[in-house]
């Protein structure tokens, strides 16, 4: 188990970045860390790997305490691998040499087979003999993934692992990589901005905000019952709507979170909205509107004329789902 107890951290400027962080991550579990830019996701990964000295709190992998550079000549842990945003590759050597660097050379046939397997996993088989400096950013990111996997870590820490990879490859790569890590029972902690990195794959999601963990839950629970607009907005466009506008008999002060795709446009009744603009999103339009001086965003299958009044409805199931958890309602 990866255990984080009461960890607080500030960089040298003294500004606190993380406070009282507590986590228990089981062997083979896949955890995603999410939160707005600058909330401390990368800092937390660096602490887990032992790249930073913490003055408050402790980190353990099973019975081994993870200590920072003040206690380790070579920072980092042998049983963990950390794939940072700046990829640690050897630019003047080939893809195969990069992936094979840490593999045993005693059985060269086995080594070559393992390199083949890893290159296939990250869909880079064609580039085995290419020097890394000739690869694109996304290709380099895939080589870096294969290189950390070659080291067979028990724990893998990934910081925005697909940030340079195009959408065309991203989905397949995510399925390959996260499927492989699950089968190998490798514990994974991924810092990400992208809901598609976590919704289908993470066992649990940890949400950071203003130095603290504000939620830890399964992706499904967090998505369906977001405590607040901050959490919902990490998944997509979301709104806070006064419940009395939607349900006339409801308590007037309460608001619920409604995702943009959960509204249905009606010509007759519902939340009256004046259209401000329409944005083509591929499979739908994102419509920006205004009700009682509040902005609201909703999906529609076609653009709507600016200034037109439309009515928005939400299914009773969605209202009841959001009403059911008291913390969901402000
Ligand atoms: N080496 C450093 N020295 C001082 N402050 C730092 C250092 N690295 C990060 N910070 C600050 O710590 C805070 C957290 O940064 P961190 O990189 O952990 O955030 P993040 O959530 O990973 O952000 P992003 O999603 O943009 O990568 C930020 O305010 C950042 O400016």
TrEMBL record:
<dbReference type="InterPro" id="IPR027417">
    <property type="entry name" value="P-loop_NTPase"/>
</dbReference>
<dbReference type="InterPro" id="IPR003439">
    <property type="entry name" value="ABC_transporter-like_ATP-bd"/>
</dbReference>
<keyword id="KW-0067">ATP-binding</keyword>
<dbReference type="GO" id="GO:0016887">
    <property type="term" value="F:ATP hydrolysis activity"/>
</dbReference>
<keyword id="KW-0813">Transport</keyword>
<dbReference type="InterPro" id="IPR017871">
    <property type="entry name" value="ABC_transporter-like_CS"/>
</dbReference>
<feature type="domain" description="ABC transporter">
    <location>
        <begin position="2"/>
        <end position="235"/>
    </location>
</feature>
<dbReference type="InterPro" id="IPR050093">
    <property type="entry name" value="ABC_SmlMolc_Importer"/>
</dbReference>
<dbReference type="InterPro" id="IPR003593">
    <property type="entry name" value="AAA+_ATPase"/>
</dbReference>
<dbReference type="Pfam" id="PF00005">
    <property type="entry name" value="ABC_tran"/>
</dbReference>
<dbReference type="GO" id="GO:0005524">
    <property type="term" value="F:ATP binding"/>
</dbReference>
<keyword id="KW-0547">Nucleotide-binding</keyword>
<protein>
    <submittedName>
        <fullName>ABC transporter ATP-binding protein</fullName>
    </submittedName>
</protein>
């Amino acid at each position: 188990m990866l255990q984080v107890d009461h960890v607080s951290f500030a960089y040298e400027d003294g500004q606190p970045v993380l406070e009282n962080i507590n986590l228990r991550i089981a062997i083979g579990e896949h955890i995603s860390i999410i939160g707005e830019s600058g909330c401390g996701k990368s800092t937390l990964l660096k602490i887990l790997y032992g790249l930073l000295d913490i003055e408050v709190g402790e980190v353990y992998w099973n019975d081994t305490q993870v200590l920072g550079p003040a206690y380790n000549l070579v920072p980092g842990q042998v049983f963990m691998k950390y794939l940072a945003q700046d990829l640690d590759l050897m630019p003047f050597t080939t893809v195969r040499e990069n992936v094979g660097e840490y593999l045993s050379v005693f059985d060269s046939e086995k080594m070559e087979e393992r390199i083949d397997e890893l290159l296939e996993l990250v869909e880079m088989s064609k580039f085995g003999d290419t020097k890394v400096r000739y690869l694109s950013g996304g290709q380099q990111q895939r080589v870096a993934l294969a290189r950390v996997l070659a080291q067979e870590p028990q724990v893998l820490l990934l910081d925005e692992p697909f940030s340079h990879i195009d959408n065309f490859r991203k989905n397949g790569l995510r399925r390959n990589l996260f499927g492989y890590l699950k089968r190998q029972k490798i514990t994974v902690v991924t810092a990400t901005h992208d809901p598609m990195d976590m919704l289908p794959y993470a066992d649990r999601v940890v949400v950071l905000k203003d130095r603290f963990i504000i939620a830890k839950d399964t992706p499904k629970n967090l998505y369906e019952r977001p405590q607040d607009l901050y959490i919902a907005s990490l998944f997509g466009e979301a709104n806070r709507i006064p419940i009395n506008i939607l349900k006339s008999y409801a308590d007037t002060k309460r608001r619920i979170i409604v995702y943009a795709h959960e509204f249905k446009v009606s010509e007759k009744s519902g939340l009256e909205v004046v259209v401000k603009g329409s944005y083509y999103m591929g499979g739908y339009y994102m419509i920006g509107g205004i009700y009682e001086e509040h902005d609201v965003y909703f999906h529609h299958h076609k653009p709507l004329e600016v200034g037109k009044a439309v009515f928005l409805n939400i299914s009773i199931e969605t209202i009841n789902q959001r009403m059911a958890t008291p913390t969901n309602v402000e």
